[in-house]
Amino acid sequence: MKHVTTAYQKPIPLKDHDNKPYWDAADKHQLALQKCDDCQSYAQPPGPSCAKCGSQHVSWENFGDDIKATVYSYVVSHRPFLPGFQDELPTIIALAQLDDVPEVKIMGNILHCEEKDVEIGLPIQMTWVDITEDRALPQWIPVTN
Amino acid sequence: MMGNIKDRYAIVGVGESKRSRKSGTTPLHLALDAARAAIEDAGLKATDIDGFMNYNENDSCTSHQLATYLGVRPKYVKDIQGGGASTEMLIADAVSLIESGMLTTVLIYRSMNGSSGTRVGRGYDPDMLQGALSGGSFVIPYGSASPSQWFGMYATRHMHETGITKEHLGHVCLSFYEHAQRNPNAFLHGKPLTMEEYLATPDISSPFNIHDSCLELDEGNAIIVTSEEKAKDCTSRPVYIMGMSARQCHPHTHYWNDIDQVASDYVAQEVYENAGVTPEDIDVASIYDCFSWVVLRQLEAYGFAKRGEVGEFVAQGNLKIGGKLPTNTAGGMLSEGYTHGMNNALEIVRQLRHDYKGTDRQVEDCKIGICTGWAGPDIAGAMILRN
User: Cβ contacts of residue B80 below 8 Å, gap of 6+?
Assistant: First the structure.
């Protein structure tokens, strides 16, 4: 059993009817994406049906835990607008474009990265941070070779 | 097809309350002040108005309350949740209701204690935000809860692709601040801005600093719409609606994944078609300016400068009075006031009426103006007006 010493102050992703498979996979340190069985497009964020063609035939595909991406865009945030971020300023918030599915972009923080080092095109990889006993949050770190 | 209403409806009255950081009163009082000013401006009686509409974020009074305390029993009231593209949408709704014969004259208002009361992007319960925003659970856990952070993400990418620089953002701010120095009612009147000061101001959410961000104020604004025939009974100079694109949407209800398109891209074609004009015909503009970059992106969307040349367009001073496209001539939301766009609509009406004739605030001989709304990358509207 994992031990969480200090209470996690930041917002915890809320699971709902449509996004539960994404966050369930995240809790297992994996990425799952919703895909339309008819038009074959991936949806992020996921929804009740395909936002491209309206099809009700959607399913989930597991991409495992080796997720590479590049920074598509980012913001360096110097002010905390939510609880828990006050001690980690500035916060880098980025939109990551997946190498394997470029049409999908996923938001996250870039950890272990200096403000001056973040740029569009920066190679990053997904990591998972255990935030409570049973929840994990997908995040990004720069790819180091 | 909207073309059949061209020039048949007019804005006949505009008015605002005092603007401040702390009104010390309620949004209902501010709405009453704004409404009375607009009614007087139009030369109407309150009882001439049979429809009242407003947009709000659960931070205002109702249209029924406003009408009641003006001494009016209206035929029709409507309160919608909305923001930056709602002025144009409600004007289109008003035109439709007048066209149908249901109403004759409609007053639209926005009134809020945007500084001393509820402030946009702050103080909300994070769990509520995750549910309230489409796809919110993919955004809120990462600390992204402020429009500055959302629009900053768009801006960073767009600037990377088009060569727009921080200094170009600064030219937008400086142009509007300069206009505010000519407007005694602008909140930042008496507070000019230099490029040196702008560039030395630290960012809140990159690429935006405080000057790139709109004001937050306590303020009420009102606008009166009626038919061309009824406008003849008013004492004001009517400003005619040539064309509108009341509301257009981004292809996705959430815009976290596609940050390249904005709804304004879809508005431009329709608004110009309905009005029967092109960007070259526009003499004066009110461009939604919740953030400086939003203006640059809209200049591209509405065809005032080509993609990649927008930065140079503003650096040449074209947004200033005397430039090619005098924009937000009262100071805009960056430096005049902030009611989610309605103050910019009031200003374009005053410009087209030549209210400032003989002063350095008047865009000389302006005949046609555009007013754009932006509720975010997801929803936008616009209208083209003439005198």
Answer: B53, B54, B55, B56, B86, B89, B90
